[in-house]
Design goal:
Largest sheet of chain A: 4 strands, parallel
CATH architecture of the largest domain in chain A: 3-Layer(aba) Sandwich
Number of strands of chain A: 8
Low-confidence stretches of chain A: none
Helix content of chain B: 40-55%
Number of helices of chain A: 15
Number of domains of chain B: 2
Distance between the termini of chain A: 65 Å
Largest interface: A-B, 39 and 43 residues
Oligomer: heterodimer
Number of strands of chain B: 10
Radius of gyration of chain A: 21 Å
Shape of chain A: globular
Strand content of chain A: 5-15%
Order of helices and strands of chain B: EHEHHEEHHEEHHHEHHHEHHEHEH
CATH topology of the largest domain in chain B: Rossmann fold
CATH class of the largest domain in chain A: Alpha Beta
Structural class of chain A: alpha/beta
């Protein structure tokens, strides 16, 4: 079996880790090349015009994987009110029409998640033993948590670094060496080492960075190609970025703690209640709630990301301005037409506004 | 009498007779907003963020036009009308969006319709809705039965007589049923128009598409003119188990009319519609397998009737010539 996966941020490192540990000589993981403009062009060319950006990008990834010889494609599937539930139906047909002989294995991301992920691993590995699967899973999760831990530190350091670009350099090194680590211990060591390195990055002691949180649709929030490196761009402007959503958090709660009745979004949902009473699919409910929560926690601003025509986020966008908790929100909608300079100009103006507000408030 | 406002938009076209029967049985009166006009469009468009799709913007316009004419506004949050089949996010967020965007709106009745949770939860929802009007459980139950009867009669009326919801509702609003003029079908062309009811029956959105086609001598078929059962069968054939609650009306109707061999299919969607962006493509794919002429119209607030007419004429010319050649 030659397995192809779509790209989303650093998720490919996790897939590589799983395959490395579960390899029985029959499977090969085909990680398509990092999402590029070629990927986007392919996706746009073969998608329905009005499909959303995550659909187009993942389709592009899958086509590139097929070009490299993948015969089994893995994709997320959700039951719920968002278009995600329709992705596989549609992409399967497009890929068949293009003449590739590939079948889809789906990963249910909205119900029975744990069962779905375990079944998927059993299917892919030809019934490997549970022990092997669990130890591989543990190894992959170690990498995932390490990556997200590093990222959290990077967000803080990048805003106050003296020599611009230094943090990114360390971050890239860290991602590379975590990806290459072969054992759990190696992952732990290299994480520690890189966090120390980040601590040693020269910082401006007088800096008092503006604090901005990133909320919105999960794919564009997590994928740097889709969101045009927004976290890095904000960091360059001297902004400390915070984001609640991350893959490791999703795994931690969706696959484990939710089964124990712990809901990571409970506080956020309660905060959203006066304005939006129910789940509207995707991440719309969370976006509204997070705006309220971050406003209460004294953040300076919220950057709300969504793909163009995303239904749940349009609901959120309509409701957000009417909340009592006042905090500036910048909504950025991504599609294939968007250019990075436009985004940067908007970020600069937004950050200026936040600085101005802060000064006025302190007077 | 207590007045319940029902905006003439979105779910209105499918469920109004049922809702009317329900509220009337509980001793309330229903007030419906006028057909979409420029004032309604302008009012709605000014409130919603730009990316919102046109029918939802119009919905807010309808709510605004009703705001001072009723005591309650009925805006159900439609989540699911079948096992694992869902509505669009905007339908679920409708009551909350209205609260945020139209603060002058009277108290909103927002039952959450979620058949995925099972019938018990639906009964519970309807009882708590009914309690706004009556504390008599028996009366609420009878109102539900009346509503169901009215809805089924309405659905049957449309499929038996081959009329659109607008025609059926117009007859209902008049005291005595006056039947419609049979459209001129001298050319004998038959074209199926598929799309959401609130797009293909709102003349403001689609620039009187159906009457224009009829005036051009075309016999128009719409999803409601087929029986629900045939639509469901056709849908399962093409798309498998539905993901959307309205999949039968789009994919089902597409497949059904392709199979009964109409001369052409026109799919009508509004710009930015999430579900349609995927479903219409499935139908398009199917038409190319069957070699059925297919026209996709994507409408928004900037669409002008001039461009629309040109495309319709070109499409019909193509269908006519094709028929001559193939005959």
């Amino acid at each position: 079996m030659r397995i192809g996966i779509p790209q989303c941020g650093n998720a490919y490192i996790i897939a590589e880790a799983l395959v490395q540990k579960l390899d029985n000589g029959e499977n090969e993981l085909i990680v398509p090349p990092a999402t590029s403009h070629r990927t986007l062009d392919l996706g746009v060319k073969y998608s329905p015009v009005e499909a959303c950006l995550p659909f187009k990008l993942t389709l592009g990834n899958l086509i590139e994987a097929c070009q490299l010889g993948a015969d089994t494609l893995i994709h997320a599937r959700g039951t719920g009110v968002c278009r995600l539930g329709y992705y596989v139906k549609e992409q399967e047909q497009i890929i068949r029409d293009l003449g590739y002989d590939a079948h889809f294995l789906t990963l249910d991301v909205s119900q029975h998640k744990f069962r779905s992920i375990m079944r998927l691993m059993k299917d892919v590995t030809n019934d490997a033993s549970w022990l092997k699967i669990i130890s591989a899973f543990h190894f992959a999760m170690e990498k995932l948590f390490a990556l997200d831990r590093i990222e959290k530190v990077v967000h803080k350091v990048r805003a106050v670094e003296l020599e611009k670009g230094r943090t990114n350099q360390v971050y890239r090194e860290a991602v590379k060496s975590i990806g290459e680590a072969k054992t759990v211990r190696a992952v732990k060591n290299t994480t520690k080492e890189h966090i120390k390195k980040l601590d040693r990055v020269p910082k401006d002691p007088t800096a008092d960075p503006v604090k901005v949180s990133i909320v919105g649709e999960v794919f564009v929030v997590l994928d740097p190609f889709a969101n045009m490196d927004i976290e890095m761009e904000l960091g360059k402007l001297g902004v400390e970025v915070e984001r609640t959503m991350s893959l490791s958090r999703w795994v931690k709660y969706s696959l484990f703690l939710n089964y124990l009745g712990i809901n990571e979004w409970k506080e956020v949902h309660e905060a959203a209640m006066p304005y939006l009473k129910r789940d509207v699919g995707g991440d719309g409910w969370e976006s509204v709630g997070e705006k309220v929560v971050y406003a209460r926690n004294g953040y300076d601003g919220v950057v709300h990301l969504a793909p163009f025509t995303c239904m749940p986020e349009i609901v959120a966008q309509n409701i957000m301005p009417s909340t009592k908790e006042d905090i500036p929100v910048l909504t950025i909608l991504y599609d294939e037409q968007m250019a990075k300079p436009g985004m940067i100009t908007r970020l600069e103006a937004f950050v200026d506004l936040l600085k101005f507000r802060r000064k006025r408030r302190r007077k | 009498m207590v007045k319940v406002g029902i905006p003439r938009a979105l779910s209105y076209y499918q469920y109004y007779p049922g809702w009317k029967a329900f509220f009337e049985a509980l001793g309330a009166e229903t007030v419906v907003s006028p057909p979409t006009n420029k004032a309604i469009f302008t009012a709605g468009n000014a409130r919603a963020v730009a990316e919102t799709c046109l029918p939802v913007k119009l919905f807010f316009g309808h709510v605004i036009s009703l705001a001072d004419k009723c005591d309650y506004m009925f805006i159900p949050a439609m989540r699911s009308l079948g096992k694992k089949a869902y509505y669009c996010s905007k339908f679920i967020g409708l009551p909350d969006m209205t609260r945020a965007l139209v603060p002058e709106c009277p108290l909103i009745l927002d039952p959450e319709i979620d058949l995925n949770k099972g019938r018990r939860s639906l009964y519970h929802t309807i009882y708590s809705l009914g309690r706004h009007f009556s504390s008599d459980k028996g009366k609420i139950k009878r109102a539900v039965e009346q509503a169901e009867k009215a809805h089924l009669a309405y659905r049957k009326e449309m499929s038996d007589r081959g009329i659109t919801p607008v025609q059926a509702l117009d007859e209902m609003h008049r005291d005595e049923g006056k039947s419609y003029l049979e459209p001129d079908i001298s050319h004998g062309l038959s074209v199926a128009v598929i799309g959401h009811p609130y797009v293909i029956y709102d003349d403001y959105i689609n620039h009187r598409l159906i009457s224009r086609l009829q005036a051009m001598g075309v016999r128009v078929f719409t999803p409601e003119m087929a029986e629900q059962e045939s639509l469901d069968i056709a849908m399962t054939k093409l798309g498998g188990a539905p993901h959307w609650s309205f999949e039968a009306d789009i994919i089902g109707a597409g497949e059904y009319y392709i199979e009964v061999k109409v001369d052409g299919i026109i799919s009508v969607a509004v710009f930015g519609c999430g579900p349609d962006s995927m479903m219409m493509d499935m139908v398009r794919h199917r038409t190319s397998e069957f070699r059925t002429p297919f026209l996709h119209l994507s409408l928004d607030e900037h669409t002008s009737d001039g461009g629309l007419i040109t495309r319709l004429e070109a499409f019909l010319d193509m269908v006519k010539r094709r028929r001559k050649v193939c005959a």
